Fold:
Amino acid sequence: MEHTLTTNGNQAILTLTGKLYVHDAGLIRDEMIEKIETGHHHLTLNLAGVTYIDSSGLGVLVTLHKMTQEKNGSLTLIGVQGMVKELLQRTRLDKVLHLEG
Structure:
């Protein structure tokens, strides 16, 4: 899993590529929680390059969604496709999380 993080004002944009497994999910969670706690309440996760996500990765998405909502912010997922999109649909997380594109 590779990722890049950029910030602009109160927005943080995280671009992920590869497969999101439990170890990477923990690192991503910690990094994004730190951003939320330092005032970046609007998160965008670009998942266009993600080919697989496990249950811990889904848990991170839910956690980040809840945290941003508590701060009157938002979590937006962009570029969701293939197996990742199918998994979000099967778990009905596509009804809870905001997906674009």
Summary: The mean pLDDT is 96. Residues 85 and 94 are 8 Å apart (CA to CA).
